[in-house]
Specification:
The structure is a single chain. With 101 residues, the protein is an alpha/beta fold. It contains four helices and five strands, in the order βββαβααβα. The chain has helices at 38-47, 58-63, 69-79, 92-100; strands at residues 12-16, 19-24, 27-35, 52-57, 85-90. It has a five-stranded mixed sheet with strand order 3-2-1-4-5.
Length: 101
């Protein structure tokens, strides 16, 4: 990659207990809540021109199945028309588990 190559920032919204959070060093017991409404966070990203969004269901990753479906639906309902690549939704653990079992 050279300095003239395009570079795209893809922000992430981590979901825990229905909130947009950031974990401290991956520790679930040390989460900082940035917003109680993740859909509003997604809307703010869209308002500044972000066209891709990475949404992480932290509880889903921990237990191996989707947990934050309602929060994801709210993000989709508010932002569906805003994003060209709406959501890269992380349930890799669940996906791999379903393949392996």
């Amino acid at each position: 990659m050279s300095a003239s190559d395009p570079f795209e920032v893809i922000p992430a919204i981590d979901l825990l207990d229905g909130n947009a959070v950031r974990l401290s060093q991956g520790r679930y017991d040390e989460a900082t809540v940035y917003d109680s409404d993740p859909a509003k966070v997604a809307d703010r990203f869209a308002a500044v021109g972000i066209r891709r969004l990475h949404v992480v269901d932290l509880e889903g990753a921990k237990v191996g199945r989707p947990v934050q479906g309602e929060a994801v639906k709210r993000i989709q309902n508010i932002c569906y028309c805003c994003f060209t690549k709406l959501i890269q939704f992380c349930h890799l653990v669940n996906f791999l588990s379903s393949i392996l079992h």
